[in-house]
Every structure is written in C-alpha cells, then in structure tokens.
Amino acid sequence: MQKSSYIGLGLLVAVLLVLPWVVPNSYYMDLAIRIGINAIIVIGLNLLIGFAGQISLGHAGFLGIGAYASAVLPTHFGLHPLLAMAAGATATAVIAGLVARPIFKLKGNYLAMATLGLGIIINIALRNEAQWTGGPDGMPVPAMSVFGFELSTDKHWYWVVAAMLAFSVWASLNMIDSPFGRALRALHGSEVASQVVGVNVVRYKVTIFVMSAVFASIMGSITAHYMAFVTPNFADFFHSVELVTMVVVGGMASVFGSIIGAVLLTALPQALATFEGWETVVFGAVLMLCMIFLPKGLVPTLAAKFGKGD
User: Fold this and answer.
1) Nearest CA to 11 among 175, 159, 165, 161?
2) Of the residues 41, 57, 153, 191, which has the maximum number of CB atoms within 10 A of its CB?
3) What pTM did the predictor assign?
4) Which UniProt keywords apply (predicted)?
C-alpha cells in the first residue's frame, strides 16, 4: 500500500475505536452501523465500477440473496446462521459466475440493462415465493450467534461491522496495489490494450463481479440479522441505484471515497427529515450540486485539488 493509504487506514481505525464512546444515544449508534454496512457494500461495488469500469444496476439483488438465505435457511431448515450466511454467499458466487460471462460480453447501455434485469428477476422471485420468503410482507430473521454468544445489542453489532469494515478497506487497498488490481485498472483504461499485454479480460471481469456480489451477499446477511426482519425492498431497483450513487458521489476508483459516499447518502436523508416533505427535493439538489462541482466524486476531486492521491 502507498503511504497515504496507511495513513487513511490508521485514521479510519482510530475513528472506529473512538466512535462508540462518543455517540450520544442508540439512534446514532444505529446510524453508524448502517453506514458501516453500506460502506462495505459500496467498497465492493466500487471495485467493479470504479476500478474495473463495469456497471451494475442490479447489485441489490445479491444483497437480497444473502439476506433471505439468512432468513429462510435457519427458519425453514434449521441451519445455523453462520452456515446460512456461507450458503448465501456461495449461492451468490455461483449465480454471479454463471451470469457474468454472457452479461460482460455486452457494453455500455446494454450491460447496464442486463444487470438491471438480473436484479429485477431476483426481486420478483423473492416477492413471488411467498411460502418461503413471506412475499411482499417479508419475514423475521433468527438471532445471530457465534460460538454460543448471541449478538443482541447495538454495541455488539457495531464492533462486528467495524471490524469487517476495517478488514474490507485493508484487503481492498492491498488488492488494488497487487498485479490483480493493476490488471483491473488496465481493463478500465482500455480492454483492447489490456488484451494486447496479456490480460485475460473475461476472467478478470467475471472475478471482480463475483467478488463484488459476495461482498453484497455477506452484508445482506449481516443486515438481515441486525434488523431481525427482511423484506424484498432489500433487493429492489431503487436500492441498487442508491448504492451506485454512493460510489459516484464519494468517488469512483477510491476506497475511502466509498466510505465518504456511504456516510453522506446514509446520514443525509436523516438530517434532511426536518424539511418535512421537501427532504427529497433538497437531497436531489445536494446530489446535483455535487455532480456539477465535483464530477469525479468528493475524495478524488479534493485529493487532486490538494495534490494528494487516495
């Protein structure tokens, strides 16, 4: 990793360690947990969109698979929550791997529509299989226990999510600086040039798509257990768009930008609730201004302005 990455990771760990001792109440603790969950999902999505240059408008579908695996398998089949989470991640990897090859033969708008269609199919399946999933009303999720210890309080979940976020950032930063990461950036720059220098374009596209999908699936399981309830809204189109927006606002091809995007787009709607009916308008205006004045996203734009890389 670069020196700036070590500094950024150190600051992140420091903030994560201090945060639970300074938040004033459980509302802000809940908000911090939700931000952490979204940040991990967005980091995985940014590896796909920002570094590899491949769009996905159906990523919430993978989140839904993980969430419902953690709801359906323990409830109907008595599977341990950790095994259910692993089963959901495995199923997600298989589905993503199977659909990735035909999907990534497409480019541009056609690729976006194909990933959108995949997300819609998953969402429809979750709504229609009511005997297993509870249909549009959703279903309760059993409590998560690890080696006999039940995660039952906000602080328990905070430390789990904080540890996963720190690990995700560390792993992503190391991957980006590895030969695999350099191949992804080359792929983003030019697929033809990448092929000329020996990069297996299809294999790298499929691999990063599967990795990003598994990120979403695992965090879908974590979210389901944390909320103790799951609905098909986990996997709807608007959630996918929200995740992509976090990538764009925070900064594409920026790991720390993913965190900033998750912070802003998770916390901002809560902060705008005081506008009573105008929060959507104000939220849209804030996003529009960000795209006009910070077209590369917050972190890359500010880093370029102050002469520092991410």
Assistant:
1) 165
2) 41
3) 0.93
4) Cell membrane, Membrane, Transmembrane, Transmembrane helix
